[in-house]
Amino acid sequence: MSKVAAVPPSPLRAFWLKWRFHINVLLLLVPLGFMPKYFADAALFRGDAGIGERVAGEVQVGPWSLTLAEFRNEGPSPDPAGPMKFFNASLCDTCANQVKATYLRIGKPRSLRAAGVIFFGTPYRMGAALPIPERTPADAEVWITMEGWDGSMHQGSIPLSQASPATIAWLNKQGVKP
Amino acid sequence: MSKKSRSKLWFLVHSWLALPIWFFVLIVCVTGTLAVVSQEIVWLANPDIRASKPSDDAEPLSFDQVIAAIKRDEPQVIVRSIIRPDESHFALSVGLSYPDGRSVEAYANPYTGAIQGISPAFNFQQFTRALHGWWLVPFTNGYSWGWYLVSFLGLPLLASLVTGLVVYKRFWKGFFRPTLRIRHGARIFWGDFHRLSGIWSIWFIAVISITGTWFLIQAFLGDNQISISSEPIVPVIAREKVPTSAPGVPAPMIPLDDAIKIATQRIPGLDATFAFLPLNAYSHLQIGGRGWYPLMFQTAQLNPYNGEIAVSHLLSDRTTLEFVTESMRPLHTGDFGGLWIKLIWAFFGLVLSMMVLSGLLIWTKRTALATLNALKREAKAQHKPVAIPAMQAETSEVHR
C-alpha cells in the first residue's frame, strides 16, 4: 500500500466521497424542468386551448369556409418523408354535413385527384401534415380544396406567410430568398 | 485470476451497477409500479370511471346503443372511438369530439350509455406512464432522449440480476431456507431482505429487464426506420368505393354492431372490445380485440359504407419474431389478464423498488461500519498506513 493513502483526504475529496453516489438525485431536475411543457402539450392535444397554438384565420372555400390553425407555432418538423408542417382546422358550423373531404396543398391543384393531403378528424377538429419542400417560394399560397357529397369541388387559398409565418422563417433559414 | 478474487470482482460489478444511479433507478421503479395500477388508483379516486350498474339485472349496451345514448344526451358531440376496458368494473372509454375543438376521453356507463365525466386535464394514468416511460422528455424528432435514458436501465438491471446470482453462492438454497434476521441490526436485516426478495423476484427482474431492453431496441429500430412489422399498410378507400349522395347528405354507413358481427365472423375467437370510427370519408372503420393469445390484439379494417373488410391483422398473420416482440409491452406493463396480474406486477414492482433501496442501505451501512473500523485501527497504529475503507467494505460480502 502506498504512503499516499495515509494522507487524510482533502475536504473536497471527502465531500466527493460522501456525496458521489447521490449526485444522480439531480436527474430529477429533468422531469421537473419538462413538466410545464408536458402539461402545455397535454392541453394542446386535448384542445383545451382551441384547435392549435396559432389560429391563422378563416378561409372561404366556395360556399363553405374553415378556420385554419397551426398546430404548433413553429416551422416544419423533420420526418423521414421530408419536412412536415401540421395544420389543424375546423369547418364552419353549417359545413359539417356538407363537406365530404378537405385537402391541403402548396400551390393550386389542377384537379381533385391532385388536391394534396387529406384532413383527418372530425369537422370540429381535423389535422393534416403538409409536406414543405425545402425550395418552396416564400410567396407560395396554401390551397384548400373541399369536396361535397355530390362530387362538387370548391377551392380557396391563403398565403403561406399568413398560414404560417414560422414556416416562412424556416424557409428563409434554408436559403430561400424572400 | 483466483476464484476468490473473481467473485470479489463480480461483487464490485454488482455494487457499482446501480449505486451511482440509485435514485434514478428507484424513481423509475416506483413510477413503474404506480403506472401498473394507475387505472385502479383513478378508479378509487374518481367515481366517473366506475361502471355502476343501475340495477342488478342490467345488461351492457352494444356499441351502437352507447353511441345512440350519447347522441341523445349531446346531439352535437361526435364519437370517435369506443374502448371496452378489460375489467368490467371500469366505464367505457369513449373518444369524443366537441364543437369547441376539444378532443377528449370521456367515461360512458356501459349499461346506460350516459357520459359520467370527461377525463380531467391532469391525467394521472398518462402522467405516471410518461414519467416512467420517458422521464417527461418530449418527443420532437423520433423517440425522446428520455425514452433512451429510461430504457437503457434494462441493461444494468439485467446485469444486476446475473451478477447478483453469481455472488450469492448457492442461491437456490434460499428458496428452502428463507432467512430474514430481524434482531441482528439493520445491516444484517437489509442484507437478508435484499437476497430473499432477490431470489423470489428472479422471474420478474428477468421479465422487466428483458422487456425494458426491448424498448431500447425498439427506439433504435424506430429512429433508424427499420421495421419488422408484418402489419399491412392500409391505403385509403378508393374513390369509387365511397358512394356519392345528394348534396348535404353524407353517404350512410353500416351500423357499428353489424361491423362487429362481420369482423367476428372473419376473425374466429375475436372478442371485439374496441372500435375506431373512420377518420374521414375515405378512411376505414377499425374493429379489434383479443383472441386466444391474451398478449396481442387482432384487428379488421372495414369499408364503413358496405362492410367489406379491406385488411385484417390476425394472430396467424404474425411472424414468430413478432409474437416475441409484440408480447414485450404487455409483459412489461402486466395489463393482459385483469386485476390479479396487475396486482402481482405491482407487488413485485414494489419489491424491486425496495431492492434498490436495500442495496443502497447495505452499502451505506457497510461503508459506515468499515470507516469506523478503519478509524479505530488508525487510532491503534498511528504509523501504519490505512487501508482504503470503501474497497474493503465493498468486498466483505464475499467472505460471508
Question: What is this structure's SSE topology?
Answer:
The complex is a heterodimer of chains A (178) and B (400).
Chain A lengths: L10 H9 L9 H18 L7 E8 L2 E7 L13 E8 L7 E8 L10 E2 L1 E3 L2 E7 L9 E8 L4 E7 H4 L1 H10 L4
Antiparallel strand pairs in A: 1-2, 2-3, 3-7, 4-5, 4-8, 6-7, 8-9
Chain B lengths: L2 H16 L3 H15 L1 H8 L17 H11 L4 E6 L8 E6 L5 E6 L6 E4 L5 H11 L10 H7 L2 H14 L5 H4 L9 H15 L1 H22 L32 H11 L4 E6 L8 E6 L6 E6 L6 E5 L6 H14 L5 H42 L8 H7 L5
Antiparallel strand pairs in B: 1-2, 1-5, 2-3, 3-4, 5-6, 6-7, 7-8
Helix pairs in contact in B: 1-7, 2-5, 2-13, 6-10, 7-10, 9-13, 10-12, 13-14
Organism (chain A): Pseudomonas marginalis pv. marginalis
Keywords (chain A): Membrane, Transmembrane, Transmembrane helix
Protein name (chain A): Thiamine pyrophosphate-binding protein
Main attributes?
heterodimer, A: 178 residues, alpha+beta, Immunoglobulin-like, five-stranded antiparallel β-sheet, 9 strands, B: 400 residues, eight-stranded antiparallel β-sheet, 14 helices, disordered C terminus, Thiamine pyrophosphate-binding protein (chain A), transmembrane (chain A), transmembrane helix (chain A), UCP029505 (chain A), membrane (chain A)
Structural notes for this entry:
The complex is a heterodimer of chains A (178) and B (400). Chain A has helices at 11-19, 29-46, 160-163, 165-174, and strands at residues 54-61, 64-70, 84-91, 99-106, 117-118, 120-122, 125-131, 141-148, 153-159. By secondary structure, chain A is an alpha+beta fold. Chain A has two domains: 10-49, no CATH class; 54-174, Immunoglobulin-like. Chain A is elongated. Chain A starts with 10 loop residues before the first helix and ends with a helix. In chain A, 31% of the residues are buried. The longest helix of chain B has 42 residues, at 339-380. Chain B is built from 14 helices and eight strands. In chain B, a hairpin with a 6-residue loop joins strand 3 and strand 4 (115-118). The interface between A and B is large, with 53 and 54 residues.
